[in-house]
Specification:
The chain contains two helices and no strands. The protein has 77 residues and is mostly helical. The termini are far apart.
């Protein structure tokens, strides 16, 4: 009944970093400084801009459709 035994203990993998990825490279750290992380506001800003633009685009398209339908129904053009 070997399948009922607990698996062998695995060694600590702390040197591997997160999810088994290699740890920080010390030889390249001095040669290339890390870029500063953007603030939370800077990360949210593009999403806010898209959210602010969508209603204006919807209104513009609705207005254009209303004009086209009005022109077609009156027969002038």
């Amino acid at each position: 009944m070997s399948q009922l035994r607990a698996p062998d203990a695995r060694p600590e993998r702390r040197e591997g970093g997160r999810h088994g990825r290699p740890g920080a490279r010390s030889h390249s750290a001095a040669a290339r400084p890390r870029a500063a992380q953007p603030s939370p506001e800077a990360r949210i800003r593009p999403q806010l801009l898209r959210t602010a633009v969508l209603p204006a685009v919807a209104v513009m398209l609705t207005g254009a459709a209303a004009v086209i339908l009005t022109v077609r129904s009156t027969g002038t053009a």
